[in-house]
Amino acid sequence: MNAPERHEMFTLPEGARKIDISKDAKMANCVKFSIQREDHTVANILRYKLLQNPQVLFAAYRMPHPLEHHVELKVQTTSRTTPVDVMKEAIELLMQDYGNIRSAFDNELFRMEASGGDASMRATRIGAGYGGFGALDSTTAEFGVAGGMGGRGDRSDDVDIDF
After folding, report:
1. What is the pTM of this model?
2. Measuring CA to CA, how many Å separate 77 from each of 22, 56, 59?
3. CA 38 to chain CA mean position, Å
4. Which residues, other chains included, contact 53 with Cβ-Cβ below 8 Å and sequence gap of 6+?
5. pLDDT digits (tens, 9 = 90+) for 118-162
6. Can you tell me the distance from the alpha carbon of 30 to that of 70, in angstroms, rounded to the nearest whole number?
């Protein structure tokens, strides 16, 4: 089979850099970021956040080939800032945004479970996280309550939900 191994889509080879930065010779104040082992998901979110910055004149990405697991993101800014600075700012803002989403989700889930919400609305605890949401390995200590929410089967009223 010609397809590369699945782990090659995510695992960065030893000694490889996650991001390579090269200056664009044809456009002023423009940089190309080659981001290894990423796809449309990360590139499109970064592009979207970059375009919200008024100092960004141009932001676009491309995937050179479907079997090559990297994206190229080109960013051009005004002379008041640099593409590297706006990229750092965009990443920080995205981390804040997703941190806020995670907190809101965890708080709502905790509120729903604490109020004895409808059993059909609760997610199943599978392994370390909630069904399908492996990143959500929260404990109630985050909410100031003793006891665990980390998927250890400590409750008898867990319900399976089919998505």
Report:
1. 0.64
2. 15, 4, 9
3. 11
4. 86, 89, 90
5. 555 555 443 344 444 444 444 433 434 344 343 434 444 444 444
6. 19
